[in-house]
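input
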Amino acid sequence: MKHSRHAAAVTSLPQAPNDEASHRVRRYALTMGIRMVFFLLMFLVQPYGWYTWVFAVCAAVLPYIAVVFANAGADSTEKTVESPTLQLETPHSRPVITDDGVFTVQENVDRPQGRDDER
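output
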């Protein structure tokens, strides 16, 4: 039994796993860096007041946010795969798809007589 397979266009493929992991690590490190700034501001800004509590809450909540964003990954958004058959059609060629899933491109290019490598 033959299965019909459609090739995915390169522009619609998901991000490589190594690139996605490094992006998630950078996002986590950035969020934890911002947390450290809030933690330092909590102790360094004098006199202590209501804003000290705001810095403390931000320093306490940001680790949870950092973990959630780091684990979210790229799989949370649905991406559609583009068909490359739409890009094959040009004014000089026309793809013909047969019943067995194979397609051929018929070219009708008017070339001047002579060698092909002359331009």
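quick obs: The chain has three helices and two strands.
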